[in-house]
Amino acid sequence: xxxxEPHDARASAAGLPSVPPEPILSQPExxxxxPAVKTLLEKWGPMLWWLHxxxxxxxxxGVLTFASKGFGHARWLAVxxxxxxxxxxxxxxWFGGRRRAPSGRNEKIRFYVMTYxxxxxxxxxxxxxxxxxxxxxxxxxxxxxxxxxxxxCALLSxxxxxxxxxxxxxxVAASVFYFLTLFCCLNLVIPALFPNTRxxxxxxxxxxxxxxxxxxxxxxxxxxxRPAVVALLVIWSAGSLAGxxxxxxxxxxxxxxxxxxxxxxxxxxxxxxxxxxxxxxxSLVEGTLHAVTNVSIPGGRGDTLTHxxxxxxxxxxxxxKVRVDIAEGKGQVRLTSSLEPEHCPDDRVGQxxxxxxxxDGQVVGRVSxxxxx
Length: 373
Known about the structure:
The chain is built from nine helices and nine strands. The chain has 373 residues and is of the alpha+beta class. It has two domains: 47-250, no CATH class; 257-372, Immunoglobulins (Immunoglobulin-like, Sandwich), CATH 2.60.40.10. A five-stranded mixed β-sheet has the order 2-9-8-4-5, with no helix packed on it. The chain starts with 6 loop residues before the first helix and ends with a strand.
């Protein structure tokens, strides 16, 4: 039996040129399916990050509640500060503060492990600080904005996407964030470790230590012996000191705060007010007015406190000395001042308040009252 003619024979019989048969192409193998875990992460990864951010925010609120129980827990911040400084140094020596995203499996693992550790330290410290700064800040005073910035930093530390993808990718941004956190923490840690420290001394010391920590993240140790580097370090430290000194009115004097206070026309024998008034007729201001404030000083009596009476924002009288007694509350002192009629303006109708201030001009607390016609 004859089989089918070859292709070339048929083509020759028909008078056509021979064409070689097309090769049979092998079908490409389908790409391997990605692992189930990787598929889930690619699909639900952003949502999982946001869920973790909500979880972190809940933990921060728990720390805030813990911190509000007392000043004695502030000492643990010293350990957290040291840990965070070491981790940041290692982080930037490892990654160099590069803007690019980490590449490779090992580099990604290192990056996210480091940032996760930093986030937990930041969250614990910032939420721990909030109640102390909240109590010490005064609404209407310059120090109120410091608490707003601190609260924004605490919230930022819980946002994983922003923290990992933005803050930790820029060395300067991460260093400024650390500088502010360290400065806020030291304002609380120093009086906890060294009671009876003056608030201004605490403020200046916190600024210098923060400046040195900031410096170590940008300048390698091998350069510290160069005269130009030493000069820059001195200028940087002096600038931080000057900023803290001249900007002291914008920083609350933690952990002091006014626990209670009021103004009234008469005093009892034990030093309390007979009537605590928030609104009074101008006829009552014809005589002497008394202000009594109980100030909580868990860090000790390192500051000289005074009363500054103001009307519609203008200083009426600043007392160089006020009467200081031990208050009933634990760790509290009672300040009493009496405003005589000759120190009052002719027009006494308006909004009044009595500020408790340190001798260096930091506002500790405020008592407000109104005089009507």
